[in-house]
Amino acid sequence: MEKEGALEANLAAPRGWLLLAGLLVANVALALGPWFVRLADSGPVAAGFWRLLLPLPFFVLMARRTGQSLGGIPCRTMFWIWLGAITFGLDLAAWHVGIEYTRLGNAALFGNSGSLVVMFWGFIMARHLPHRFEWLAIAFALAGTAILMGRSLEISTATLIGDLFCLAAGLLYAVYLITLQDARKHIGAWSLLVWVSLFACPLLLALAIALGEPVWPQQWGPLVALAFFSQIVGQGLLVWVLRHFSPLVIGLALLTQPAVAALTGYAVFGEVLSPLDLLGMAMVGGALVIARARRG
Predict the structure, then answer these.
(1) What is the pLDDT averaged over residues 30-58?
(2) Distance CA 69, CA 89 (A)
């Protein structure tokens, strides 16, 4: 712990700057995900299937190279991994559908709202009421969400529905994080990514077929880019750097995601943010930072 704290306090060290760069690159890569979902000519849920399936050999290789076993997992732990993977699959399905209807900045922001839900879960488990700054996070989150959803409704009802799908995805992602809390203590991160992908892929494929989505794409570029940036670069770098930073630093870096997504939406799709939109995003973003810090 002292070593990690020293690393954050002294980023003049070359390795410290390298880790910080990795954290920022991971968040930027994850922020590009909604763009590739929009570009994919498969359905949005099918895009989630390919996002998890295509990088699977890489995760298996990393698990092997780091000495993480893919077998010998207790049945109880495997059950929680399965349950978490199902929740993660539903999270991706809801988020990718929401991306199709709302602005990219909103999608990135609401998709990360799971940090707030995890904070609320901590209150329940600890059986105490929020403290001063935690009440501030709750107030910011509610006010910012109300502003963003009100602005979405002004655009169209479909945009508001997209926001709701992304909020549902944030809730599901929080359940995924909570479900896998104990599993992360007993299985390596790469092995966990392998098993989550193996369990979630069939669910996403079944959902895509049930919804009548095209599954096999005509153009592979966007899906390969989605898998590369979101899973290999985004998730892969996060596995490497997260243990070196406090939740507060991680929360601040997380704010690059809605910023990059909003800029992408403006540059590629002409999605314009008003000053009121920026205020709403800043309020929800501030709440996410406080929630991340609270988790530490």
Answers:
(1) 95
(2) 23
Q: Residue 217 has which token pair?
A: 């794409």
CA distance 62 to 66: 6
The H or E element spanning position 141 is: helix 132-155
Whole-number Å distance between alpha carbons of 101 and 1: 43
Q: What are phi and psi of 90, to 5 degrees?
A: -65, -35
137-172 per-residue burial string, b: 16 or more CB within 10 A, e: under 16: bbebbeebbebbbebbeeeeeebbbbbbbbbbbbbb
For residues 115 and 272, is the Cβ–Cβ distance under 8 A? no
Type of residue at 57: P
- pLDDT, tens only, 118-163: 766 766 666 667 677 777 777 877 787 788 877 777 778 888 999 9
pLDDT digits (tens, 9 = 90+) for 172-208: 988 888 888 778 777 888 999 999 999 999 999 999 9
pLDDT category at 49 given cuts 50, 70, 90 is very high
Q: Among candidates 291, 288, 285, 290, which has minimal Cα distance to 273? A: 285
Q: What are the DSSP calls for 71-126, one per residue?
A: S---HHHHHHHHHHHHHHHHHHHHHHHHHTTS-HHHHHHHHTTHHHHHHHHHHHHH
99 and 38 Cβ atoms separated by less than 8 Å: yes
The SS3 call for residue 152 is helix
81 close to 73: Cβ distance less than 8 angstroms: yes
Going from N- to C-terminal start, the domains of the chain cover 2-295
At 229-249, the pLDDT tens digits run 999 998 888 877 877 776 667
Residue 15: pLDDT over 50: yes
Distance of CA 223 to the CA centre of its chain: 17
